[in-house]
Amino acid sequence: MLARARKLDALGVLGLNKRNGDYILRFNPRSRYPLVDDKLQTKQLALAAGIAVPALYGVIRTQHDIRSLPDIVRDHPQFVLKPAHGSAGDGIVVISGRSGSRYRTISGTLLDADFLFHHLSNAINGQFSLGGIQDVVIVEYMVRFSPLFESLSYQGVPDIRIIVFRGFPIMSMVRLPTRASNGKANLHQGAVGAGIDIGTGVTLDGVLGTEVITHHPDTMNAIAGMQIPDWDTILDISARCYELTGLGYIGVDIVLDRDRGPLILELNARPGLAIQIANRQGLLKRLQICEQRADFNATPAERIAFSKGEFRHPVG
Amino acid sequence: MNNRHIYLLAAFLTALSLGLFAYKSRILGFPVQPQEETQIWNIEAALRFDPGPAAVKATLRIPGLTPGYSLLDEYFISRGFGITTRNAPAGREAQWAVRQATGPQTVYYRAVVYRDDTRLAEDTTPPFPSPPELDEPSRVALEGLIAEVRRQSADVASFTTELLRRINQGERDPYASLFLKRGHTVADRVHLATIFLAGAQVPARVAHGITLQSTPGPVQPESMLEVHDGVQWLYFNPQTLQQGLPENFLIWWRGDEPLAEVEGGFDLDVTLAAQENLLPSMVVAERRAERSGSHAVDFSLFALPIATQAVFSVLLMVPIGALMIVLLRNFVGVKTFGTFMPVLVALAFRETRLVWGILLFAIIVSLGLLIRFYLEKLRLLLVPRLTCVLTVVVLLMAAISIVSQKLGLQPGLSLALFPMVIIAMTIERMSIVWEERGASEAIQEGVGSLSVAAVAYLVMGMLWLEHLVFVFPELLLLVLAATLLAGRYTGYRLLELRRFKGVLPNEAT
């Protein structure tokens, strides 16, 4: 057991305790949390800074507002309902079309308006927020994912997670929905995680649970070796999130839209550690490389150049 | 806030906690073990006398300086007598006085003493005694004997032993026989020894006391010779010549005066009695602290009403349960519903016992979950839905209690102490996790919560620990120090070793 702890340590694997104690507590000022915990604020900040995000159709703030949903989405057959304080994708409903008066979700289930209203009311009352606080629901553009990923995902939207440490993108992965994950891009629900080489934007082998896999379980296509398009743009917007939020250790979630390119979905002030498994690389090692060699006064462009040089796969 | 600050703080808290603990357990004798009992003796002196026609005054020497023993309590019992105590040259005295009394009178002195090795004869060094005033032949005999004994001895101790041996020979010793009357008692011999020692410029006195026995009953006072060698008091048994104070010997009074005297009365009869007893150590410690003027007891939890004490004996265990959670979450990595929910459940287990507790908890939560899934279909708003779940939980608890009463299952009844609000919240959280992340995750977290609760219950149920924390609440500072240190533990959690197995290149295959 100790031997394994030593091995993980040698690989620079970051544990939860160290992430919380040495990075989140040190680099994420509490006063900045609302910026990322409230997805509405994140969105507004990003819009103000000119960073691309899914378009905002409307906000449902009160029980009364729920009835205005049909008006908000009148011109948008496809939309997403997202509790502003939801965590880990809880409470998100993706509507991909209508069938009469009913709404069809991305997985094909038909929901009547009543069900949707009930869901909204739960969300407003804080069912999906941390600590059950009152919440608001964002109605936004449904991302039409780039055909690029079609070979590598089962329904749903694959998203790209980038860990940004004080403005430096240090590790990234793409989360590919599977049949088992119900089209959700959540690793603990059975989505496949695949590391992305920061230096080139090319995918590595995937991980399902803790097992390494080379092919997507549903589409049977090889996971490794795919070039993520607009990789430089992706790195650029994620690096700029540091200036945006003032948070030193964040996870930036990005989706690739067919028409609008990379869009920021949300930011996370407590990003998970599974990315290390997807990359089979330790975060701690990269954090330490940054702390030792990086110039923290650099511009975003300089930072990206540094990251691309230092974190070309495999690191160390 | 750097780590050194925390280490210093933790070290300070640890030192403070252990220091207070040591003071209370060592000096004040607070019991470290539950149900610890201290041996005590009830000693009693009964004075019987017939009063004369006028005022009566009875004097009793009472224990004062008692090496090896401390007084816990004393009582003076009489009918119609005024009582005063005072310090006399020979020790303490109690005096019963009454202006008029008829018929035989009995007054009692009772005391509780306990063994206390820290108590020494903390007398100041006595002055050199003045030489005894004697007629010429006696003086010559005295000097002769002293000279002979001195020749055969090296120091005060051996001098005294030799002297006592000579005196014990009685008539057979040419010098000692001069001083001893026919039919002399042990007390007379000891008295004689003090005279000789005074002649040799050695401070000495007679100590009278009783031997504390385990069998109750009357005891006879015995005499010891106390000799000061310039540094400390030495004790000699005048008959066996053994040096040292026997463990079970309680010195009652000193000097040549009798144990009791009566003025204005006659036919005085004094009996002493002793009885061994056991008393909860806590009681002894409390009384002792009170007598020594320490405030440790005033500010201990024993100063609270009994019912409040019972509450605190449980409350003080909560931080220890919480510490278990810290260990299991931050060092092992067990997932639970709510941070402190398992502690509250563990508290409920105190009443139901472990197996029943887990069973009942599982039953309520699963029934509650079923109801919750049904309520989900009704599309209730959040707070009303929570209230519904809570109501259902309370009803379930009542129903289970009634059923178990009918079946004669006692543990089912203690269910009432389950934290129903916590259970309702747990059901709510669990159903959301169930829907959002799947049943396996929900059950995993549920089982995690229950096992943490079980561990917390087992630790919080340790009687000795509960006793320790209740008698020494300062030990919670240790818990605080441990938690501070745990708060800066940034190493891997045990379950992370398995979780990150896939990162290791060679072990993954």
Would you summarize the structure shown here?
Chain A has about 325 residues and is an alpha+beta fold. Chain A contains ten helices and 13 strands.
Average predicted local confidence, pLDDT of chain A:
87
How does the major sheet of chain A shape up? Answer: 7 strands, antiparallel
Lateral strand order in the biggest sheet of chain B: 3-6-1-13-8
> How many DSSP-defined strands of chain A?
13
User: CATH homologous superfamily of the largest domain in chain A, by name?
Assistant: ATP-grasp fold, B domain
Distinct helical segment count of chain A = 10
Beta-strand fraction estimate of chain A: 15-25%
What's the overall average pLDDT of chain B, rounded? 83
CATH topology of the largest domain in chain A: D-amino Acid Aminotransferase, Chain A, domain 1
Q: State the shape of chain A.
A: globular
Q: Tell me the number of helical segments of chain B per DSSP (H or I, 4 or more residues long).
A: 16
Rg of Cα set of chain A? 19 Å
What fraction strand of chain B?
15-25%
Mind explaining what this structure looks like?
The complex is a heterodimer of chains A (316) and B (509). Chain A is of the alpha+beta class. Chain A has two domains: 2-36 and 146-310, D-amino Acid Aminotransferase, Chain A, domain 1, CATH 3.30.470; 55-141, 2-Layer Sandwich (Dna Ligase, domain 1), CATH 3.30.1490. Chain A contains ten helices and 13 strands. Chain A has helices spanning 2-10, 16-27, 33-37, 39-49, 69-72, 113-124, 231-245, 275-279, 283-293, 300-310; strands at 56-60, 79-83, 93-99, 102-105, 110-111, 137-141, 159-165, 168-176, 192-196, 203-208, 211-213, 249-257, 261-268. In chain A, strands 11-10-9-8-7-12-13 form a seven-stranded antiparallel sheet. In chain A, helix 7 crosses helix 10. The radius of gyration of chain A is 19 Å and the shape is globular. The two termini of chain A are 24 Å apart. The model of chain A has no long low-confidence stretch (mean pLDDT 87). The two termini of chain B are 42 Å apart. Among the domains of chain B are: 136-252, no CATH class; 318-460, no CATH class. Chain B has helices spanning 3-27, 136-151, 156-168, 176-179, 186-199, 281-291, 306-315, 318-332, 341-352, 354-378, 382-407, 420-437, 439-460, 463-471, 476-486, 494-499, and strands spanning 37-51, 56-62, 69-77, 82-88, 91-98, 105-115, 204-211, 217-219, 222-228, 233-236, 249-254, 260-263, 265-280. Chain B has 509 residues and is an alpha+beta fold. Chain B contains 16 helices and 13 strands. In chain B, the strands form three sheets. Chain B has a five-stranded antiparallel sheet with strand order 3-6-1-13-8, with helices on one face. Chain B has a four-stranded antiparallel sheet with strand order 4-5-2-12, with no helix packed on it. A four-stranded antiparallel sheet of chain B has the order 10-9-7-11. Classes of the chains: A alpha+beta (316), B alpha+beta (509). The interface between A and B is large, with 41 and 31 residues.
